[in-house]
Every structure is written in C-alpha cells, then in structure tokens.
Amino acid sequence: MNQSPGIWDRLAVPFSVLAPMEDVTDTVFRRIVQAAGAPDLMVTEFTSTDGLCTAGRPRVIGRLAFTPGEKPLLAQVWGNSPERYLRVASEIRAMGFDGLDINMGCPVRKIIARGSCGALIQNPGLAAELIAAAREGAGGLPVSVKTRIGVSQPRAAEWLAFLLSQGLAALTVHGRTVVQQSEGAADWGAVALAVRLRDEAGLSTRIVGNGDVRTAEAFYRRARESRADGVMIGRGVFENLFLFAAIRGGAETEFSALAPREKIAWFRRHIDLHEETWGRAGRFDVLKKFAKTYLRAFEGAGRLVDAIMHTRTHAAAREVLDAWLLQPAVAVPAGNADP
Ligand SMILES: Cc1cc2nc3c(=O)[nH]c(=O)nc-3n(C[C@H](O)[C@H](O)[C@H](O)COP(=O)(O)O)c2cc1C
Asked: What predicted TM-score, i.e. pTM, was given to this entire model?
C-alpha cells in the first residue's frame, strides 16, 4: 500500500531540492540558502538513529534543529536497527518535519563496513524492514529513500524496482555506485529508468534525480529528459549561492558576479548566524570551510580565504573581513587576528 504523499503532492513539478550534506546543510546554511534563493524542499544532514537512541544523543541532536522558515523540510536518518527507526520516526513526526528520508547511499567506508547506508543496496531484506519500521513510526508522515544505483557495479533496474515496491512517498536517485563516490559523471539514465519503472507499476512515488546539476539550464534539461518530478542539487550551490533563485527565474545575477563587498556581507551573515545559533560550542573549523563559497572570483580572494583559515573564533573571522574591507589591496597577514 502506498502511504500518504503529504508534502510531496504539494510541490509543483519540476521541484527543486537542496541536497542533504553533512557539515554543510545545518539550520544555519539552510537559512542562508533560503534567503539567497529558496529551493522548494530542503533536507537535514544525515543523522544517526543509533546516536539519537543512545548516550551519544547530545552530540547528534543539533543536526535536527530547524526554524519554521526552513520548511518544508525532511529529516534524513541512517542506521540499521528497525526498532530504532520506529522510535526515531515517531519522534521526527512530533518535531514537525514534513517527511523522513532514509539514507541508503552514503559511501563512507566506516559506515559501509557497518552494513549501513550504501551497503543496504546489498541487503534488501534489511532495507525493507527499515522502511516498514520507519513507516510505522512515522504514522502518516511521508517516508522517502535517497540511494545510489549499486555498490561496486550498477544494478539500477533490480534495486530501484525493489525500492519502488516498498510504498515510498518519494525516491531520490543519485546515479553513481557506492564505489564511485563522487567520481565520473552521474548516470541520469538511471533516473529516467526509475520514472519508467514507477509508471509501469502504476505507482505515485515521486522520483527525484540527483547528481552534477550546476545551472538552472541543467536543472530544467535533466528534469525534462529524465521526466523526474524533482531535481536535487548539492555542490552546485557552492558555485552559485543564487542557483535556486535562478531556477525560479528570480536571480538578477550569479553570486560570482557580486561585488566583493556584497560577497563578504553574505559570509558575515553566515558567521553571525552561526555564532547566534551554535555559540562557541559550534564547530568553528566547519564554518571556516564556507569561506571558499563566498570569497571567490575577485582579486585577493584566495589570500582572504587563507587568512580566514587561520582564525579560531567568530570575532577573529569578522576582524579579518573588516580589515579587508578597509584596505582591500593589502593582504591580511595570516593568523594576525586571533586573540
Ligand atoms: C560535503 C557533502 C556532504 C554530504 N552529505 C550527505 C548526507 O548527509 N546525506 C546524503 O544523503 N548525501 C550526502 N551527500 C551527497 C549529496 O547529497 C549528493 O547526493 C551528491 O553531492 C551529488 O549531488 P551534487 O552533484 O548535486 O552535489 C554529501 C555530499 C557532499 C559533497
């Protein structure tokens, strides 16, 4: 039996989705992306069901933090225990998410070795149990899966047909194998195949394609050619923070064409929001990695990124940016702004 489609039925086709990205798409970056262009749907970083159900909970619960402006929003989870999926799914429903997404694609070796995420492609029995437990716990909240097309070899037809038989509200297909990680080109033929299998089976499962979409033109071309209902974009947003605005037809410019002062203002906004949200407990090294997203395509941007990489506090990072604004031509000596 298919479950209630909920949010998935309210999205106009083709809809855009901000991909889940660990250490990237936390509540802070999601609010930045929302302000810069607003995708139709967003997803949290993947969150461990084991972590949520054990003493490690305080370390992972922040991944599920969100503000109302980030909705519609899916919580993405991973793990191997049906009992824990049952518990976590009902908690996620109570938290006010619009859906629960199960990660069946992450290729990180440690995680694969535990039989989780991408390794589930080789364990359909457990995959089915996890989906059933999530559906039971979610009590009507839509459950979806994000997956790849195989472990070492592509076996899209078999695996995607299997997943489609599990009554999912939506299925996101990243057209690479686990072993491929991010290498090679994503196979959008596998996305088209998922659409065909869905139609042949007469199902209403939404199909979302993912992989290598970096422009509004590619968004519409991929959606048209594959007939996917939605397109999920991850890394493309680092290259152009205004990508989702461009997809909506509302972007006046690409992010890279902004004046340096405006790029710095966006980064400052991120730094301020990060400090406000996570305080000193927030992992500053994770924040620093965003410097390259904002500080790009202008004279001296590389040196400014280097200087940011040497800071250790929000205040120090702000000082580096302010110093550059006062005297853009002068390189900021690395590390000078740390207290
Ligand atoms: C830094 C980073 C972190 C990621 N973390 C997750 C994650 O938590 N869950 C997930 O399903 N995929 C994760 N992915 C994979 C992306 O969601 C997406 O499938 C992949 O980047 C391909 O899409 P793209 O070419 O649009 O980036 C991550 C990717 C990157 C680059």
From this structure: 0.95
Q: Which two tokens stand for residue 63?
A: 């991944």
Take atom 3 of ligand 1 and give the residue whose Cα is closest.
21
Q: Where are the beta strands (DSSP E) in the chain?
A: 15-18, 41-43, 47-48, 73-78, 99-104, 143-147, 170-174, 206-210, 230-233
Catalytic positions: 106
DSSP 73: E
Amino acid 329: pLDDT: 60
Residues of the chain with pLDDT under 50: 1, 334-339
Q: Write the CB contacts of 339 (distance below 8 Å, at least 6 apart in sequence).
A: 313, 315, 316
Q: Which of 267, 196, 182 is nearest to 227 (CA)?
A: 196
Looking at the CA of residue 146, tell me the nearest atom of ligand 1. Answer: 11
Dihedral sign of CA atoms 322, 325, 327, 328 in order: positive
Q: What is the pLDDT of residue 330?
A: 55
Ligand 1 centroid to residue 332 C-alpha, Å? 33
**Confidence at residue 251, expressed as pLDDT on a 0 to 100 scale:** 80
Single-letter code of the amino acid located at 79: G
Using CB distances shorter than 6 Å, the residues near ligand 1 are 19-22, 24, 45-46, 76, 103, 105-106, 146, 174, 210-213, 233-236
Please check whether residue 302 is in contact with residue 334, taking contact to mean a CB–CB distance below 8 angstroms.
Answer: no
Residue with tokens 């070492």: 152
Q: What is the pLDDT of residue 250?
A: 83
Q: Which of 16, 17, 21 to mutate to test the pocket of ligand 1 (most atoms within 8 A of CB)?
A: 21
Q: In 187-242, where do the E strands start and end?
A: 206-210, 230-233
Closest CA to 174 of 135, 97, 124, 121: 121
**Closest Cα to atom 23, ligand 1: which residue?**
211
Closest residue by Cα to atom 13, ligand 1, is 21
CA distance 43 to 100: 9
The single-letter DSSP state of residue 44 is P
